[in-house]
Write a structure and sequence with these properties.
The protein contains ten helices and 17 strands. Helix 3 runs antiparallel to helix 4. Belongs to the class I-like SAM-binding methyltransferase superfamily. RNA M5U methyltransferase family. RlmC subfamily.
Length: 375
């Protein structure tokens, strides 16, 4: 993939862009093999590749420049702005939205935040697209509520220009640090759930919720987990760190009890809505810390699926799983290093199969799905 920003050195977010894509995949697989070299792996499945461009469903744009000429993109170390509206990682559907938003910022008087002077109001634009109907979620990250009324008054014009904006909100982030969002989210549209669907499974995303940024690879990842679980002799399942329960809802059957645990109450509300739409009656969800939930139980189901953040599941949960000895653990990881560390703390388990999913092309990052069986 060719990128003018990379060539001129103004954006190096895609650190591996100069590396041929086949080499990227080979290097990632080699790194994963090295991390698991102390483990016996039953089957290494082939790497799942990604489209090399236009694969992202989310844009996280720093807003800089002036209210009349805003710039969406990143800030270099010297404070200069780099406009990334034409970034090849975004689908073509993003460009017209960015164009209208630049006009809207001037109409609404949303002064871009100036880092050096600590002045201005609009810090970031967060844009997420659903492939289901081509709808978007738009979040304005503001320094304060000073311009909130102006934003609300100008909003009808924006909605008229971009009817595909299904969900709009304002996030208040007052701290002068490189923190993407704050704790307060203000709904600007009645609807605050963006509907998506992977493999005919409905999924919902709220403004502060996590969702995979590469829908093509994510759909394959979920479908793979579904197929692996369908081949196992299991009758009950936990989905820990479940988010909106993409994994659990793919793996659930009408007769198999499933419990989904996620600390975010908003994510649990989304998961429950999906389960209701699917007509699943043996599914329950709780907004709890996954480790605290599990370690408070006297027994575990046949299958425990874990999809933790980059820190992994940790020593306490590994100790619990080793003691309760579920027949299978399905581990989805965005950080193979912490996954390998966790697996080393599960001595009673053997890796049945492992597969790498290239969720983040042109970078060193990737997803891994690993099936463990109790020996």
């Amino acid at each position: 993939m060719q990128c003018a920003r990379y060539t001129e050195g103004s954006c190096r977010s895609c650190q591996w862009l100069e590396k041929p894509y086949t080499q990227q995949l080979s290097d990632k697989q080699q790194q994963l093999a090295e991390l698991l070299d102390q483990q016996t792996v039953g089957t290494w499945l082939p790497v799942v590749p990604s489209p090399q461009q236009a694969f992202r469903n989310k844009a996280k744009m720093v807003v800089s420049g002036s209210v009349e000429r805003p710039v969406f993109g990143i800030l270099r170390q010297d404070g200069s702005a780099v406009d990334l509206c034409d970034c090849s990682l975004y689908p073509a559907s993003f460009a017209p939205v960015f164009s209208v938003l630049k006009t809207f910022i001037a109409r609404a008087g949303l002064t871009p935040y100036q880092v050096a002077r600590r002045r201005g109001e609009l810090k970031y634009l967060l844009l997420t697209e659903s492939r289901l109907r081509g709808e978007f979620m738009l979040r304005f990250v503001l320094r304060s509520k000073t311009k909130l009324v102006q934003l609300q008054q100008a909003l009808p014009w924006l909605q008229q220009q971009l009817p595909q904006l299904a969900v709009i909100s304002a996030n208040i982030q007052p701290v002068h640090q490189a923190i993407l969002e704050g704790e307060e989210e203000i709904a600007l549209t009645e609807n605050q759930m963006l509907e998506e669907a992977f493999n005919q499974v409905p999924l919902f995303l709220r403004p502060r919720g996590f969702f995979q940024t590469n829908p093509h690879v994510a759909a394959t990842l979920y479908a793979t987990a579904r197929d692996w679980v369908a081949a196992l002799p299991v009758t009950s399942m936990w989905d820990l760190f479940c988010g909106v329960c993409g994994f659990g809802l793919h793996c659930a059957t009408p007769d198999m009890p499933l419990t989904g645990i996620e600390i975010s109450a908003e994510a649990i509300a989304c998961a429950q809505r999906s389960a209701t739409q699917l007509g699943l009656t043996q599914v329950t969800f709780q907004a709890l810390d996954s480790t605290q939930f599990a370690t408070g139980k006297a027994s575990a189901p046949d299958l425990v699926l874990v999809n933790p953040p980059r820190r992994g599941i940790g020593r306490e949960l590994c100790a619990y799983l080793s003691q309760m000895a579920p027949a299978y653990i399905l581990y989805s990881s965005c950080n193979a290093q912490t996954m390998a560390s966790d697996i080393s703390l599960l001595p009673g388990y053997q890796i049945v199969q492992v597969q790498l999913f290239d969720m983040f092309p042109h970078t060193a990052h990737y997803e891994v799905l690993t099936l463990l069986r109790r020996e």
